[in-house]
Amino acid sequence: MFVKDERIPVSLDSADLPHEERNVIYIKPKLNFGEKARVTDALITVKSSGDKSADMEILAGTGNLALLTECIVAWSGPAFAGMACNAANIGRLDPDEPLVEAVLAEINRRNFSREAIDPKGLLVNGSAN
Q1: How does 9-26 read in b/e, with b if 16+ C-beta sit within 10 Å?
Q2: Would the pTM count as exceeding 0.85?
Q3: pLDDT digits (tens, 9 = 90+) for 37-86
Q4: Among positive and negative, which fits the CA dihedral 65, 68, 74, 75?
């Protein structure tokens, strides 16, 4: 009935490395109803055209930032030394960093249907499993 309160580790480093040497980002296993609603609100805007029609705009960048902010719960490793895991620092993550790309792909895999995700892992519509 409720989403489990767990931390799922995502890392590209070898499991043979000592834990303190591995860069790991921990994510929620799945968005709950409220979190998914906040991500959808950040992703999609609907504007009235004035003639009883509406235009929908998809804000993939804003949606992905909301997705990362809602789902990342902690991080560890040398790349994160001295950096608190908070919304401001999540926003500072390098979008081209392979670990960040892997985290976003894993979040999308756990939360959205395959039809809702483009090949680069960007959430492109609000369709949900």
Answers
A1: ebbeeeeeeeeeebbbbb
A2: no
A3: 888 888 888 877 777 778 888 877 788 999 999 999 999 999 999 999 99
A4: negative
Average pLDDT in the 24-48 region? 89
Positive or negative, the CA dihedral 91, 94, 98, 101 is positive
Q: Which amino acid does the sequence have at 92? A: R
User: Which token pair is 4?
Assistant: 């489990």
Is 72 exposed, middle or buried, given 0-12, 13-18 or 19+ CB atoms closer than 10 A?
buried
d(CA 83, CA 120): 27
Tell me: the pLDDT tens digits for 110-127?
988 655 445 455 544 444
Q: Is 91 exposed, middle or buried (0-12, 13-18, 19+ CB in 10 A)?
A: exposed
- Tokens for 110? 């756990």
Element (H, E) at 25: strand 24-27
CA distance 39 to 65: 9
Closest CA to 13 of 61, 69, 80: 80
